[in-house]
Design goal:
heterotrimer, A mainly beta, B alpha/beta, C alpha/beta, A: mainly beta, Ubiquitin-like (UB roll), two-stranded antiparallel ribbon, about 10% helix, globular, B: alpha/beta, FAD/NAD(P)-binding domain, D-Amino Acid Oxidase, Chain A, domain 2, eight-stranded mixed beta sheet, 10 helices, 18 strands, about 30% strand
């Protein structure tokens, strides 16, 4: 995933599984992860298969992961400085 | 052809009665307007608790609990039963008084409920919130996965040789020589004996026989979370009975307790009341704070039947030989299998081990039998 | 606005749910008639998915027709007296009418005698082996990344599926300087040629499609018509896409050669599903209409449903495309204004006339496009037994067929037998396909209807639902008899 336009927004840092990740203020968590080439966000609960963002508009729930301690949809959640993201979803 | 027994209504009562009657040698037909156990028996909270059961039903519920725990033996198919501890909580002095009184009455009736402190309750259920003043603790508790009920009974009834007519609404009953003809969308289904087991629809069914038995319809709201990390390991309720909460092995948490939605017998549960979903969820999160991080994914409503005295309608139909009724059992999913088996035993000529609940007490003498001629 | 436990709900004349082309136009039309209108949307800005607003702070995004249309709509909204409340997720509709939302600090609700449902469609993706791999995304999702973020979703991208989004997405990627490895269109060239006269009935939209197609040709992107994705391969993420030819009905051609394309991103979609969320929840009358994207409300020519005071417009309630959604929105807004007594029936007809004309003029185009996007039953029949259909619960075609063989005859029963549709997507990803699988046996898709729709309309974090409360706030009902 690559951004192909000018981006004047400030860079911020989020924590993803304990590692700092640079993101742009205003992006969703799903986009921030994708731009850092993190596509797999979680494993599916029944089969344990790798899953990532799919619909990017809040419908499919594939990107529901733990953000600041609660299950949230990464595609609908804006990044924030110091945000804690865990790459795990429903157990 | 004529069956030994025609049952109208394929919920947990109708199905259990059909199963035991067939195993006892009767030729049985079961008529159901939809799919098996898709109304109250399939959409209830699945709670198998003594702490919400009416005192008069405790002896039945205890025996039914044992049946559910051994469902694989008598039913032969899995309904996801988990046996665990149950807690009924009191957060205020008033609730503590209510709990002491109610738990005491249930204990007198045989339910093994102990009153314990909040600290003790927390050692049993580490997910509990602080601030519990008093808790009723019962080791005979647990839950089933209610939505598996229909599939389990469908397989069991097939194996027992019951003729199951799903998606076959009954529209009336005619009395005829040697029994009854249940009129259905697939034509008449004839039987020597008749059992009406239609949940909230028992009232119109008895009406076909000229019997007027008022049945109130409760519209119980329920909600479920998506899968979450383990947040609790017991069944949690509250002193006044308006919370039932437990986490299934796959991680979903079902929030119930009988908060009322909008609906009736004719239309079903047509609408959920958002404030009551919120209220029920607040109560649930007040009891188990870790639930706050979960998301609610579905909510629904199931119809529960209630007679004037809130006790079951189980026994012969007065004045109509060979016609029986079985239903309107408070917390009917918990007690249903045992009570319906009692009725099957009665039909098979055995002496039931506990008394039935004949409906004579509920029929007004002046109006109750006027349709008999 | 009303806060639960903190007084009554905010009262308005009209509530509009969804601020896309349909909903925003409905809100504007109703407000211009003098009504007090509350417009709710989950996103931060109006425009919906199709006219989605670029993120603030991004420069140099292509000036597209959609961007211009969206900006114009947003400017009209700002200039109006519509009470636009973005960032609100609707989770409950009830009564006559009450709309409950989360998104602010506490749960809120709004009440109005008129409710216009315009919540938009979602994408249908007919499952294939490997469609759950990270790197496989929806076509509609790709448009969001392109339009709002200036993002190309991969380094080597395969764009596959059906309908006009294929060319839109491929052209959008190229315009941003990205690489499209292939375009894979289930429709054969003949199907497009057959639709051409109808598409030519709206020259501006046909021209837009032609510009996209030319851009794809100029970039020498291979276009495989009459082909579909057979499977997606990769270790933990997408690495290869296998495609093969299909027949006119969309079924794979047996014994023909499939071939492999290296790609790190697959954008795939098979048209749109009209979820009809709000009208289903409120139990208005519905019908199954394959062309319109599923179970859709029965509407009169101004968007009135069978329930008084309830209106529907836009693709969420019948696929017609953005070009008609605008007109449908205006008509629904005028109908609400007329029914509320704000304008006379004559006034309504007068104002509605140009929009009815647009509606009529674009119908042929719209139907042709909807036809290209409609579900192809043969494609569903071809799903392999081991392929996951329900993504939430990892339920395969084989498991669904087994439940059907075990006697599941309706959608709710199939859900109970399999858990299919019980997950957090609430059957939006699988429901349309599962209904089609069930219909193979019953033979009557229309009779199957849809799963019962109830609140929450989307998953809601309990935390957001609870708001601030103390135990004594909870209106605990009377205890049950002992």
């Amino acid at each position: 995933m690559r951004r192909r336009c000018e981006d004047d927004r400030e860079s911020i840092t989020i924590m993803v599984d304990g590692r700092p990740l640079v993101a742009r203020a205003g992006d969703s968590v799903a986009v921030a992860l994708g731009l850092n080439d993190i596509l797999k966000m979680r494993s599916s609960p029944a089969a344990g298969a790798p899953r990532g963002a799919f619909c990017f508009m809040g419908v499919c729930q594939e990107c529901a992961i733990y953000i600041d301690g609660a299950l949230r949809q990464a595609c609908l959640t804006r990044v924030a400085e110091g945000m804690v993201v865990e790459l795990r979803g429903v157990p | 052809m004529s069956y030994d027994l025609v049952i109208v209504g394929g919920g947990v009562h109708g199905c259990t009665a059909a199963l035991f009657a067939a195993r006892g040698g009767m030729k049985v037909a079961l008529v159901e307007r939809g799919a098996l156990a898709r109304e109250a028996s399939g959409v209830n909270a699945g709670t198998l608790t003594m702490q919400m059961t009416r005192v008069a039903l405790i002896p039945y519920a205890l025996r039914a609990h044992a049946m559910w725990a051994n469902a694989r033996e008598w039913l032969g198919h899995d309904v996801g039963v988990v046996v665990c501890d149950g807690l009924s909580l009191a957060f205020t002095e008033q609730e503590a008084q209510l709990l002491s009184y109610r738990a005491g009455k249930r204990r007198e009736a045989g339910a093994p409920i102990d009153l314990i402190s909040g600290t003790e309750a927390k050692s049993i259920e580490p997910g509990l919130a602080d601030g519990v003043l008093l808790a009723g603790h019962c080791r005979v508790d647990g839950f089933a996965n209610a939505y598996l009920t229909g599939l389990a009974f469908q397989r069991a009834l097939r194996e027992a040789g019951v003729d199951v007519l799903e998606y076959t609404p009954a529209t009336g009953i005619e009395r005829e020589a040697g029994g009854f003809a249940v009129l259905t969308s697939a034509g008449p289904v004839r039987g020597k004996r008749l059992l009406l087991a239609g949940g909230v629809w028992i009232e119109p069914m008895l009406g076909w026989l000229g019997i007027r038995l008022p049945i109130k319809t409760l519209v119980n709201q329920l909600a479920v979370s998506e899968r979450v990390q383990p947040v609790m390991r017991t069944v949690v309720g509250i002193a006044n009975g308006l919370l039932s909460l437990k986490q299934y092995p796959h991680g979903t948490v079902v929030i119930g307790g009988g908060w009322q939605g909008i609906g009736d017998r004719e239309r079903g549960g047509v609408e959920l009341v958002p404030e009551r979903l919120i209220g029920n969820a607040r109560l649930a999160c007040h009891a188990i704070p870790a639930l706050r991080a979960a998301r609610m994914v579905r909510a629904w409503a199931g119809l529960e039947a209630e007679t004037a005295d809130a006790l079951p309608a189980v026994g012969p139909v007065p004045g109509i030989p060979d016609a029986y009724v079985c239903g309107s059992v408070h917390s009917g999913y918990t007690s249903g299998p045992y009570i319906a088996r009692l009725l099957a035993e009665h039909l098979l000529g055995k002496e039931p081990s506990l008394p039935l609940f004949p409906i004579d007490r509920l029929l007004a003498p002046a109006t109750g039998r006027e349709g008999l001629t | 606005m009303g806060k639960v436990n903190k007084g009554a709900g905010a009262i308005a004349d009209v509530i509009v749910a969804g601020a896309g082309p349909a909903g925003t136009n409905a809100a504007l039309a109703a407000a211009a008639s003098g009504l007090d209108v509350v417009l709710l949307d989950e996103q931060d800005a109006a425009g919906g998915q199709v006219w989605r607003k670029p993120l603030d702070g991004l420069n140099g995004l292509p000036e597209t027709a959609e961007l211009k249309a969206g900006n114009a709509l947003r400017e009209r909204l700002i200039a109006s007296n519509v009470r636009f409340l973005p960032g609100r997720r609707i989770w409950s509709v009830s009564g006559q009418y009450r709309v409950d939302v989360i998104g602010a600090d506490n749960p809120e609700f709004f009440e109005a005698p008129h409710l216009i449902a315009a919540t938009g469609a979602h994408e249908r993706v007919v499952p294939f082996e490997g469609w759950t791999l990270p790197g496989v995304i929806g076509l509609a999702g790709a448009t969001t990344l392109i339009k709002s973020g200036g993002i190309v979703p991969g380094n080597r991208i395969v764009v596959a599926g059906s309908g006009p989004l294929l060319t839109a997405v491929a052209a959008g990627i190229l315009k941003l300087g990205g690489t499209v490895a292939a375009v894979v269109d289930i429709a054969p060239l003949g199907a497009w040629l057959k639709a051409l006269p109808a598409l030519a009935s709206v020259p501006s939209l046909l021209a837009q499609g032609a510009v996209w197609t030319l851009a794809i040709g100029r970039a020498r992107v291979p276009v495989y018509r009459g082909h579909a994705v057979v499977r997606a391969l990769g270790n933990g993420r997408l690495e290869q896409v296998v495609i093969g030819p299909v027949d006119a009905a969309g079924a794979p051609v047996a014994g023909s050669d499939a071939f492999t394309i290296d790609a790190d991103c697959l954008c795939v979609g098979n048209g749109l599903v009209a979820g009809s969320d709000i009208t289903r929840c409120l139990r208005a009358g519905h019908t199954y209409d394959r062309l319109r994207g599923g179970v859709v409300p029965v509407l009169d020519d101004a968007g009135r449903t069978s329930r008084a005071g309830l209106y529907a417009c836009g693709d969420g309630y019948g696929i017609r495309g953005a070009a008609m959604a605008e007109s449908a929105g205006v008509l629904a807004g005028l109908a609400a204004a007329c029914d509320a007594g704000a304008i006379s029936a004559e006034e309504m007809q007068r104002r509605a006339a140009p929009h009815r004309a647009t509606f009529a003029a674009r119908r042929r185009f719209s139907d042709a496009m909807a036809g290209m996007m409609a579900l192809r039953p043969e494609q569903v029949r071809a799903i392999a037994p081991e392929t996951v259909v329900c993504r939430c619960e990892d339920i395969t075609r084989g498991a669904i067929d087994a439940a059907i063989a075990a006697g599941a005859k309706d959608l709710n029963q199939l859900k109970h037998f399999t858990r299919c549709g019980m997950g957090p997507c609430q059957a939006r990803m699988c429901g349309d396909v599962v209904a089609e699988l069930l219909a193979i046996g019953t033979g009557d898709r229309a009779a199957l209807g849809a799963l019962t729709m109830r609140p929450p309309l989307r998953p809601v974090p309990l935390e957001a639902l609870l708001g601030d409360f103390s135990y004594s706030d909870i209106p605990i009902p009377e205890p049950a008899p002992l």
